[in-house]
Amino acid sequence: MNIDTISKDCRRFPDFQGSGGFKRGYMEIYVVRPGDSVDSIARALNANVEQMIYDNQLVYPYELAVGQALLVSGYVREADRAAAVSGYAYPFISPWVLEQTLPFLTELRVFSYGFTEEGALLPPNLGGDAWMVAEAVRYDAMPILTLTPFGPDGNFNNQLIHSVVNNEAYTVNLISNLLDTMGEKGYVGVDIDFEYILAEDRDAFSAFVWQVAEAMREEGYQTSVALAPKTSADQEGLLYQGKDYRALGEAADHVLLMTYEWGYTYGPPMAVAPLNQVRRVVEYALTEIPAPKIDLGIPNYGYDWSLPYERGVTKAATVNNVQAVRIAVEQGAEIRFDDVAESPYFRYTADGVAHEVWFEDVRSLSAKFALMEEYGLRGCGYWQIMQWFRANWLLLQDRFYILKA
To answer: What is the per-residue pLDDT across 195-251, written as a single tens digit (0 to 9) for each?
Structure first.
């Protein structure tokens, strides 16, 4: 990275401290320059090199990629703003990863329970969930049952939604089964993650959420809804037309904006959660839903695309954020930062095939946390927490006091 690029980064992060560092609270974000090493960076910033290695999950011999963003810890402070933080996890999550993550979570959303067309509840088919509920309780995080309309093929099935939300008996059956399971398992809330809702079912779905939420509140439980990232009330497309932001925001206790997947497995290479697009979703949501009810969705992953991209043929590989940096190091790639998307990316060639990788780092996450503060949002929710990214959680904790049960 040349000095001109560094200067541009300095303007984006106004509390720049010099020497390639960006002050965020009592931590610094340092962007690696040619010739840097962990030792030289630690000396320049008067930082503890072992702590820097640990915080950033660096691998011996601690090689760095030019353009890599490092979180450099300062002294601990008490954050002055509270935030609710949720994270989705499958039952096969590593117990160690879950244990490391739970201290930073307000809610653990177990993914997921399904249902039949008649409203019978189906448990997660990828492992038992009782141990996750117990771990959440141990760390004062609220265990939340995530409800999804997955069909036999494992994909979202809008016919399941259509059947339940348009039949009062099936709705009552599903609510009854939810309450029984929540009481038996120890869940304290339900998260309704229905996607690809038919446009004709928009009002019926809103009424369904109202009915679920009222039943939950009567028993002392909470209800949240995951919302596709709309930018207008009349936005077309199967992801959007079935969700009425205003009605769902009024019905639920809080909502999660699924502000990710602009860059996705089968799409062209681009940022997973470009901040310019995320901002548009937040600004629209605030016209329909009060800020204290809104959580910002944050991706905990990236994608590696082979090039040239060919629609219908190219399939990106999912990578975690630590893995993405390791690829850049191993391939000798320079990590760049897109000023509009406020996301890191890089390109490399392996075995004669060109690749493009987009992921999240502490710079892109810091920008998202700043957006939460700017608009006074309730908090954030991670899809998903299956991989451990220590720097994210340290940065989050530096910015917010995590609300606990």
So the answer is: 999 999 999 999 999 999 999 999 999 999 999 999 999 999 999 999 999 999 999
> Residue 41 has which token pair?
């960076």
344 bridge partner residues: 337
Cα-to-chain-centroid distance, residue 246: 23
Find tokens 């939604």 and name the residue.
161
Tens of pLDDT, residues 272-288: 999 999 999 999 999 99
The CA–CA distances, whole Å, from 109 to 106, 132, 310 equal 10, 10, 35
| Distance separating the N- and C-terminal Cα atoms of the chain | 44
* 85, 396 Cβ separation under 8 angstroms: yes
Tokens 């009002």 belong to which residue?
A: 203
The 10s digit of each residue's pLDDT in 85-127 is: 999 999 999 999 999 999 999 999 999 999 999 999 999 988 8
Q: Quick one: which of 77, 60, 80, 57 has its CA closest to 68?
A: 57
Distance CA 59, CA 152 (A): 41
Pull the structure tokens for residue 322: 């630590």
The tokens 């398992």 sit on which residue?
A: 185
- Helix (H) / strand (E) element for 284: namely helix 275-285
Q: CB pairs under 8 A, 24+ apart, for 7-10? A: 8/339, 9/337, 9/363
Smallest CA-to-CA distance from 269 within 209, 180, 204, 359 is with 359
DSSP letter string, 11-74: HHSTTEEETTEEEETTEEEEE--TT--HHHHHHHHT--HHHHHHHTT--TTT---TT-EEEEE-
Q: Please answer whether residues 385 and 88 qualify as being in contact, where contact means their C-beta atoms are separated by less than 8 angstroms.
A: yes
- Residues annotated catalytic, as ranges: 195
Residue 174, Cβ density class (10 Å: 0-12 exposed, 13-18 middle, ≥19 buried): buried
Nearest one of 290, 257, 294 to 273, comparing CA atoms: 257
Residues 224 and 144: their CA atoms lie apart, in Å, by: 9
